[in-house]
Amino acid sequence: MKLYNLKDYCEQVNFLQAVKMGLGKNQGLFFPVNLPTIPEKEINKIIEMDFLSRSVKILSMLIGPEISIDNLKKYVYQAFSFPGPNIVPVTKNISCCELFHGPTLAFKDFGARFMAQIISHLNTKNSIITILTATSGDTGAAVAHAFYNAPNVRVVILYPKGKISTLQEALFCTLGKNITTIAVDGSFDECQSLVKQAFNDHQLRNQTGLNSANSINISRLLAQICYFFEAYALIPKKQRKKLVIAVPCGNFGNLTAGLLAKSMGLPIQSFIAATNANDTVPRFLQSGKWKPYDCISTISNAMDISRPNNWPRVEELFSRKRWKLNTLGFGSVSDKVTTETLLTLQNIGYISEPHAAVAYQLLHNQLKEDEFGLFLGTAHPSKFKNIIDKILNINIPLSETLKSPSKLPILSHYMKPNFEKLKHFLTS
Ligand SMILES: *Cc1c(COP(=O)(O)O)cnc(C)c1O
Known about the structure:
This protein is of the alpha/beta class. It has helices at 15-21, 40-48, 51-63, 69-79, 108-122, 139-147, 166-173, 188-200, 202-208, 218-234, 253-263, 280-287, 311-321, 335-348, 354-366, 385-392, 400-403, 419-427, and strands at residues 2-5, 8-14, 30-32, 86-89, 94-98, 129-134, 153-160, 179-184, 210-212, 243-248, 270-275, 329-332, 372-377, 413-415. It has a domain at 83-104 and 218-397: Rossmann fold (3-Layer(aba) Sandwich). Strands 4-5-13-10-11-12 form a 6-stranded mixed sheet, sandwiched between helices. It has a 5-stranded parallel sheet with strand order 9-6-7-8-14, with helices on both faces. A 3-stranded antiparallel sheet has the order 2-1-3. Bound molecules: pyridoxal-5'-phosphate. Pyridoxal-5'-phosphate (PLP) is lined by residues 106, 108, 137-138, 215, 248-254, 302-303, 355, 378-379. The site of pyridoxal-5'-phosphate has 17 residues, from helix 11.
């Protein structure tokens, strides 16, 4: 697999190099040179396959001979060794595609666990690798669990202090061992910017064997393509004809993966990019002007990102495929409406959480009569027990996964959003 740097087309790397580097020169994202497509006749055959075999097939089409089929198979089976996507009908023409039945109860388990397999494949020299990543809530847990106890890997996770749910925090800040967590006195965008600065510092990068596990990492994105195929395979044939998928967006990695699935030939009619009040992309699609505001804290906190990293990949894909950007659905939903939507969903008989509710709301408003809609359930409602209980006036049972971490002490360090401080921390 060859990839080029979106900020410097001359810089080309292969898949393993892209995984190792995270970002290219000038903090540019890597993007595939070839966009493989599955002929229409073969799509149905691929859809008929089971989730794991199909995922191996899709990833081998993308990655190519750099990783042998036998190894790839091993990595996919180890990474996706948890309950996969689950389709739950919500209304007569809308279902939720639940992606949150993994070890940390969010869709990020798919990408993070596949990435962990690739990193261990890369680390044959057994040198120390530092995985430095910023999280708006769920990446931290997925990455921490995927790399927990991995030999020669140190994980350092930055998160905005006080801006993630207490259960999200408990899931990754109580582990210890090779997992270090830092509560940064700032926003997610500031955490993300610290990570980018660290990557720009070549000396630091080499000294610490720095690697990122954010959704800028191509291995995470590729893994996520697989569940879009599975979602399609799981819905009845008559719902597949005019399928609209609404994606709750933060860094736009999930949407990028869905669009890549479409580019490979998966017959998805269209997507809706759903954001909360951090609406840089919806405003851009409306006005053509890219104008990020300061990050706003919302109840769908994992989407509190005003400078979404993966957006350049979305634009590149539209341009490469000659799709019109105005075919991408979009919208932003306030906390007030999100709260009302959660209540509406509860009345219909579906307990959701704020991120999925944002996507449902826009799908519900924009879906045409002859279309079928899927919205992605990106996290388990019990991860947001504190607010869900209050809004819905229920006592949502804490899933087993959350019970014990919620009783353990938080081991996080504290830091001002200052690069020199971070550098000192990483090298001492
Ligand atoms: C990370 C996350 C999102 C946003 O996904 P992106 O790929 O960053 O757009 C949405 N919902 C939840 C629950 C998340 O954890």
